[in-house]
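Posting here for the record, re: adenosine-5'-diphosphate.
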Amino acid sequence: MTPKILIVDDRIENLISLEKVLQDFDVEFVRALSGNEALKQTLHHQFALAIIDVQMPDMDGYETVQLMRSVERTKYLPVIFVSAIYSDEFYIVKGIESGAVDFISKPIKPEILQGKVKVFLDLYRQSEQLKQLLEEKEKMNRELKAAKEKAEYATYTKSMFLANMSHEIRTPLNGIIGMTEILQNSNLTEEQKKNLEIIKISGDNLLSIINDILDFSKIEAGQIEIEKIPFDLNKQIDTVYNLLKFKAEDKHIYLKTEIDENVPRYLVSDSLRINQILINLTNNAIKFTEKGGVTIRVKLSEDKGEDKIIKFEVEDTGIGIPEEKQGAVFQEFTQADISTTRKYGGTGLGLAISKKLAGMLGGTIGLESEAGKGSLFWFTISAAETSPDSVASGESNEDNDNLVEMRNLKVLLAEDNAINQKVGTMVLKTLGIDSDVATNGRQAVKLQMRNHYDVILMDVHMPEMDGLEATKVIKKHCSEQNGIKPPAIVAVTANAFKEDRDRCLATGMDYYLSKPFKTNDLKKLFATILKA
Ligand code: ADP
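Prediction output follows.
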């Protein structure tokens, strides 16, 4: 845009001669014959510079500029005063006080005016450029922010989609696995048993893949919290060992554990998440090892007083990972060798999840490996040491004594999915319990009013009235009607996360059972309820 110069003089011939002197500049002139007119023009135009005669009737040049300075638009407008009485110090000072100004005497010497105007125009151009740069930067910032929000939203929706999909897939899978277990306990030929075993293994594999996806997407969406609870480290390592030793035995390889003596036994951290990583690494180690075996080691890596850095190692004598592939294995959906997928299966998510979890536990993860020789995967956690008494005492073996008592429990199963109803009632039946079924929350409330159950297994997602709502109604009703013992309400859902659990408990549900539940889970739960 061409810069505009405001020229102000009460005599038109002076304005014309000014324009003549400055005719070589690429500018547009706007004329004003009085101070008032000049002020009016500043409302309509954005000026680069004003050249103002000092001596004018009515409002003189100084007054005009002073008024300009009081308005935001023209506060910093550069001004060149033109005056015949230039020797008058007072006027000079008064003029300079009001902002960026210069002074030129009459009669005007063209080269001097041209020189000054050039300086001001250069300054104006520079400041315009700066302004433009700033605007561009601001625009870019806005765009960046919008793009960032969009990307975050995309990650979030992707994660939510995955989480929802996994949830939807788990519900029917629950039916498949549950029914398979029930069938396995019936009278079968050897052939049928073998076939069922394959269904069971496939179902379990599918479930663990879905759990991985669910886990990963929840971590990505920032929906996983780390719990800090005292635990017995030796016991955790035993749990992992007992869980996986059969897998090693099946492959005729060894699995052993070594815990260094200086490792504190009682720690505060999230033992479930530590187990999850350990199981992941050990499962991999067993999967990729055909000869020799796997060693789980625990070491005290650093003693920072209050905080202990504990290092877990899982070493195998398996196929190893070539150096150039080692960096990639912690990335999601990445496998060192595509051909191993065909042979061993897997989603390539296990290590990515483990890495994120290790980070959340205050540690890191890494590996050393040589192709053909084996791998050593390790991870660290930061945990505080605690006393043995702070660790909750283990489960006793009195569960079985409760079996008889268990049979007398009045149980209601509230569940809308027909297959899950069937699986649920059959699992209950294996415990000797005859249960009633409600297909939605409303029905559950109605049946409870009539039959007063000891336990309600309450699905959370149901049509008409969901499990949370039904729980509120039932609890309210029981507290209003003194004398009715409220049922133990167990939230049953496929969302196996702490946040979901907290939500259920906050609504007044008493226990939590994640789908698909097994006979053993139920047995333990009923034992706890009976003890309460
Ligand atoms: P996956 O479900 O495919 O096992 P992971 O993230 O657990 O996913 O592992 C990624 C890849 O890292 C595996 O597919 C395999 O190629 C490699 N890998 C992991 N652990 C081992 C190991 N102990 N020995 C050899 N390769 C391994």
